[in-house]
Specification:
Elements: E1 2-4, H1 11-30, E2 53-63, E3 68-76, E4 84-90, E5 96-101, E6 106-108, E7 111-114, E8 117-123, E9 127-139, E10 155-166, E11 171-172, H2 178-187, E12 204-218, E13 221-237, E14 245-254, E15 257-266, E16 269-278, E17 281-294, E18 301-310, E19 315-332, E20 335-348, E21 351-365
Antiparallel strand pairs: 1-17, 2-3, 2-13, 3-4, 4-5, 5-9, 6-7, 7-8, 8-9, 9-10, 10-12, 11-12, 12-13, 14-15, 14-21, 15-16, 16-17, 17-18, 18-19, 19-20, 20-21
Helix pairs in contact: 1-2
Length: about 375
């Protein structure tokens, strides 16, 4: 069980919260961090010399009627040997279709291309096109992905042509509720010197809820896709081995309601962040409580329940049942990190929606 919520505060803690909240709000204002995003945010950004510097574009998508969905990510890693592109399709039950693209990303005008994967920026901060044409690995049991020899797998020809269009403005995570962050930092006993460690997990980050339409063709079967999802753009160092815990939970119910709930724990820092998109407006989270049920292995999410209260004062209760889990094993300098990407069905009142629950676990060093 994991949760954070309001607690009674002593005088000393209340003073600290007030000071931290004011300092965070002032920092955002003086640095221009809370200003509306400009179209330049959608372009590539200058990198540092940090080995783990990463610029990432990500989209997830689900068609409730056809019960097909997936996600795709383009990770640009200028200080490493290759960039990484991926697209995963949840094709029903435990079956997935997967492709991995390597090499260097070509950025030409409005188009970002890596191998057979193309992202086209049709309208900055609002509209993107995702295109893939080629073979994908056809995997009957997604749980076996880390142990499979990809060269021995059967292939399936796949064509993807989807257009993402935002139903609300992009939410800049720099616009997190200052009071909420201050309360979490003080209540958790966070060492202030550890706050800088959050920059190891991408220092710039925004997300957007949207409708998604187009076609997906698997072999001879062509599917008219109509649904929704969440997109993400981040840049800065991203050291997957740094957080001791990571939860990233998204859902698009419909054009009236979507949400993101993010929890990051690194050194003594343990904070929630995120937003609710309601009727085309983004509301930063004010409080959140999360309960997760894991499978017997202790690392695979099975179900989850949470309460989200945004800064407007409105609260929603959501439950989620995991449908298909894709385990991704990341290895760097002998350290192993497991990231479980799970297609999840969510319920909120009479609404049913789909999205991703992403749970990260550190497995330690290889023996």
């Amino acid at each position: 069980m994991e949760e954070t919520k309001g607690q009674s505060l002593g005088f000393g803690k209340a003073v600290k919260i007030n000071l931290l909240s004011a300092a965070h709000a002032l920092h955002k204002k003086t640095r221009g961090l809370s200003a509306p995003l400009t179209t330049d945010a959608e372009s590539l950004h200058p990198s540092s010399q940090d080995y783990n510097w990463n610029e990432s574009f990500y989209f997830n998508f689900m068609d409730p009627r056809n019960r097909i969905g997936g996600w795709t990510r383009l990770g640009i890693l200028p200080n490493q040997e290759t960039d990484i592109g991926a697209m995963m399709l949840y094709a029903g039950g435990s079956r997935i279709l997967a492709t991995f693209q390597g090499g260097r990303t070509a950025a030409e005008g409005k188009k970002f291309s890596l191998g057979n994967l193309d992202y086209l920026r049709l309208e900055p901060l609002k509209k993107w096109q995702l295109v893939y044409t080629g073979d994908m690995f056809d995997i009957d049991d997604s749980r076996k992905l880390p142990e499979l020899n990809l060269e021995s797998l059967k292939l399936q020809n796949v064509e993807v042509d989807l257009v993402f269009e935002g139903v609300a403005p992009c939410f800049n995570f720099m616009n997190a509720n200052s009071r909420a962050l201050a309360e979490m930092i003080v209540q958790a006993g966070t060492r202030l010197k550890d706050l800088r460690d959050i920059s190891k997990i991408s220092s710039h980050h925004y997300e957007q809820a949207g409708r998604i339409n187009g076609t997906i063709k698997i072999g001879n079967r062509e599917i008219s896709f109509s649904g929704g999802g969440i997109r993400d753009h981040s840049w800065g160092p991203r050291d997957w081995a740094a957080p001791r815990l990571w939860r990233w939970i998204t859902c698009h119910f419909d054009e009236e309601l979507s949400f993101n709930l993010t929890r990051i724990a690194i050194t003594s820092v343990d904070v929630f962040n995120g937003f609710v998109t309601r009727d085309g407006v983004n509301y930063p989270l004010r409080r959140a409580a999360l309960e997760s049920e894991l499978e017997e292995d202790g690392v695979t999410q099975k179900s989850l329940r949470f309460l989200l209260e945004d800064e407007s004062g409105e609260a929603i209760e959501v439950s989620g049942e995991v449908l298909t889990v894709i385990p991704i094993l990341l290895e760097s300098e002998g350290h192993r990190t497991l990231v479980n990407e799970a297609l999840t069905e969510y319920r909120c009142g009479d609404k049913v929606g789909y999205g991703i629950s992403e749970y990260l676990h550190q497995l330690g060093s290889e023996a």
